[in-house]
Amino acid sequence: MISFDRDYAMTIGGERVNSNETINVINPATGEVFAQAPDCSREQLDEAVMAAQKAFTSWRATSIDERATLLSKAGDVILSKAEELARLFTKEQGRPVEGARNEILMAGNWLKQVSVMRPPVHVSEDSEAQFIQTTYVPIGVVCAIAPWNFPVNLAIWKVAPALLTGNTMVLKPSPFTPLCTLKIGELLQSVLPAGVLNVVSGDDRLGPWMTSHPGFAKISFTGSTETGKKVMESAAADLKALTLELGGNDAAIVLPDVDVDEVAQKIFFGAFFNTAQICVATKRLYVHEDVYDALRDRLAAIAQAVKVGNGAEQGTVLGPIQNQRQYNRVMDLLADAKANSLTLIEGAAIPESKGYFIPVTIVDNPPEDSRVVQEEAFGPVLPMLKFSDVDEVLKRANDSPFGLAGSVWSMDTDAAMKVAERMETGTVWINQALNLRPDTPFSGHKASGFGTENGMDGLLEFMRPKSIYLARG
Ligand code: NAD
Predict the structure, then answer these.
(1) Which one of 75, 312, 387, 440 counts the least CB within 10 Å of its CB?
(2) Structural contact between residues 171 and 144, judged by C-beta atoms closer than 8 angstroms
(3) Catalytic pick among 103, 186, 245, 376
(4) Cα–Cα dist 417/255, whole Å
(5) Which helix (H) or strand (E) element contains residue 84?
(6) What is the phi/psi pair of residue 414, to 5°?
(7) What is the distance in A from the centroid of ligand 1 to the CA of 173?
(8) 8 A C-beta contact, residue 155 and residue 183
């Protein structure tokens, strides 16, 4: 019987493993330490890599249908513990319980949905002279590193396709949110063979140890662009295969024909869900001058009505910032906005507590070159910018080192499609936001990434093509 509120252990070679040292885990709503997670030693990392290497030999030899059956069962195991995991999720991540539960349910379902995918087989010639076939084979042991904003989903985005295609893995959650991932690692041992999925946790030393470890054949990393560059450098030493999902500074473009009442709620949560700690949240809101004032006032009213607080309390819609480091970054951006006399519109009051709370803040038409527009806030500070011409706004939206996602809002879907096609990002939503699916590629362009997750392109990132030429006759 697994307990969810204590005994957080790593999973190495199918075994529960503790460590001599531990790291503290803080509840961001209270600012207090409420649990300890193992701090993996270098020797334990070696053991995890060796366990994954050993398991790779037999796991890759199983049929994809067998692996799919196990992964679908793994999804069921997660779904069966959704309530326990959701409560733990709120404590460590801060997100209110309903959103926490949705993340766990999505993770379980994601495993089941990915398990039906199959890599293609290409036949380039089937003649009397020769037969040429390309299939896809697994790469080996995958080093998977996840961030703290969607700690479970973004880990499962790696686990599901990597394991389905015959790879094995050592997974590391963020030191800020290790607990649900550790418990999931333990839970899945009831389904997966030992060593197929190993989960380790630790402090800031562990990530670099992993990315430079020669036992990994592939790194799948989600996190900031800054860290992504270090990961790429580290991977170069022995040419590890690499997928990087990095930061963004997504623009939403609101055309003049929108029904403001209809879109305001969707635009608000496209920016502020998860307290705006989403790689694909709207981080620059460009609004046509004809509807600017009306939309600003609607968004300000929603911000006033939304309850910000401890996610464990009923009625809370937005929780705290997940950690002190991120809180300091967002406060620094706000201080810069204040120092430059930008107009700030604040939402509902925040609780008086040691938690990392920041009120929802809309910045009213700041200059394009202000820090709050140019930098990824990753917190509830949204610059709202006025435009009058579509060509001009596209230039401003595209003038960013990032290219993750974006959105267009209009009743004229043809006009919106034309704008979407001109946005230099891997994903664009029209009249919706934050919709991501296992069967659809998610790819950061420019400094937002390297490679793809999800969809067939994402599946094949965990495989290598292998071509066989057979001479006939
Ligand atoms: P981060 O880069 O600080 O950390 C991400 C992970 O990398 C953590 O597990 C961390 O422990 C580990 N890490 C830190 N330094 C490392 C190093 N030198 N080598 C190897 N691993 C290292 O990012 P974060 O603050 O956890 O997450 C926020 C950032 O992630 C934002 O920029 C956000 O946009 C981005 N993000 C991107 C996506 C996406 O899919 N594109 C999704 C979520 C978050």
Answers:
(1) 440
(2) yes
(3) 245
(4) 12
(5) helix 82-93
(6) -65, -45
(7) 10
(8) no
Catalytic residue flag (residue 226): no
Model pLDDT for residues 437-468, shown as the tens digit of each residue: 999 999 999 999 999 999 999 999 999 999 99
**Choice from 158, 170, 181, 227 to test ligand 1 binding pocket (greatest atom count within 8 A of CB):** 227
Domains of the chain, residue spans: 10-246+448-470, 251-437
Radius of gyration of the chain (CA): 23
Closest CA to 366 of 391, 350, 345: 345
Q: What is the DSSP secondary structure assignment for residue 318, as one 8-state letter?
A: B
**Biggest CA pair distance of the chain:** 82
Phi/psi at 254 (5° precision): -105, 115
- pTM strictly above 0.85: yes
The minimum-distance atom of ligand 1 relative to the CA of 226 is 2
**Catalytic-residue membership of 453:** no
Instruction: Give the C-alpha separation, 324 to 336, whole Å.
Output: 18
Q: Which helix (H) or strand (E) covers residue 299, if one does?
A: helix 292-305
Span 10-34, average pLDDT: 98
Span 405-415, pLDDT tens digits: 999 999 999 99
Domain spanning 251-437 has what CATH number? Answer: 3.40.309.10
Answer CATH for 10-246+448-470 from 3.40.605.10, 1.25.40.10, 1.20.272.10, 3.30.1140.32:
3.40.605.10
